Amino acid sequence: MRTKEFQYIIWEHHKNNKRKNNFPWRKTRNPYHILISEIMLQQTQIPRVIPKYNEWLKAFPTLKALSRAPFSKVLSTWQGLGYNRRARFLKDTATIIHKKYNERVPRSPEELETLPGIGHYTARAVACFSYGICEPFLDTNIRRVYIHFFGGKKRNIPDAWVMRYVQKTQPSQHKREWYGALMDYGRDVLGGTKNNPNTKSASYTKQSPFRGSTRYIRAKIIDHALLRKNGTTPASIRNALLKDPYIKKGDVLTHASALIASLKKERLLREKNSRLYIYAR
């Protein structure tokens, strides 16, 4: 397929679906707002992110407000999005930007990538959607688009191959809108297809069911601790997990202590006088 033909297809879908895809983070270039949206969207679907994004900006309207907030409030506000480490990353990132960058989100992808929880994609998405500095980048929807249109019968396609097409087809103008349009096409047109193009990607992995998984147990431990301002104990946590119908008893006995230790290491939980609390700062 020729580049101009490909661009026409993507732009036409974008033009015809602008109203439907006018998400709150598409209406702003505020770097803090864009940063929040991109971290939330890393592992969570848009319908769940929209209300939480609005709630978050009411609770922490500025980067300074987030940097000064108690972590317990940050984590409590985050609940419902999953992958609680992202709340820790956001809190730490806000603190670093407040102290090191005078509350200004860095412009360059290279600087952004040094911040907690920000990888190659998120750094470039924030730079592009905030500042119009658009280096080629991939997310799951963009990857889906390029494999669909250019992958043919190939299998085990590396991201380096996909990135060559991203760079080759990137327009010289309106790059910020272009990347949003690519994401929308991948989600709207290809997201519900039975033959997911991303299964041809070398980086594709099928996500395991959430209930009963390690992620599920970690989330339940955090839920338990959030409800107890006076702290809890490992024994109390294990008892709560054993009552959960989706968690196998063997998994509790085998993994609970290690998961509590990992949550402490990640600064989600802290221990004081043999009791466990949500991390203070």
From TrEMBL:
Show the coiled coil region(s). Answer: none
Q: What would be an example GO MF term here?
A: endonuclease activity
Q: Which UniProt keywords apply?
A: DNA damage, DNA repair, Endonuclease, Glycosidase, Hydrolase, Iron, Iron-sulfur, Metal-binding, Nuclease
- Which InterPro entries does its entry note? DNA_glycosylase, Endonuclease-III-like_CS2, HhH-GPD_domain, HhH_base_excis_C, HhH_motif, MIG/MutY
Q: Which reaction does it catalyse?
A: Hydrolyzes free adenine bases from 7,8-dihydro-8-oxoguanine:adenine mismatched double-stranded DNA, leaving an apurinic site
Broadest EC class assigned to this enzyme:
hydrolase
Give the record's GO biological process terms.
base-excision repair; mismatch repair
**The protein's required cofactors:** [4Fe-4S] cluster
In this protein, which residues make up the domain named HhH-GPD?
40-188
- The reply on keyword Hydrolase is yes
Enzyme Commission (EC) number? 3.2.2.31
Is Disulfide bond one of the keywords UniProt gives this record? no
The family assignment reads: Belongs to the Nth/MutY family.
Name under which the protein is recorded: Adenine DNA glycosylase
Species of origin: Candidatus Niyogibacteria bacterium CG10_big_fil_rev_8_21_14_0_10_46_36
- What's the source species' lineage? Bacteria, Candidatus Niyogiibacteriota
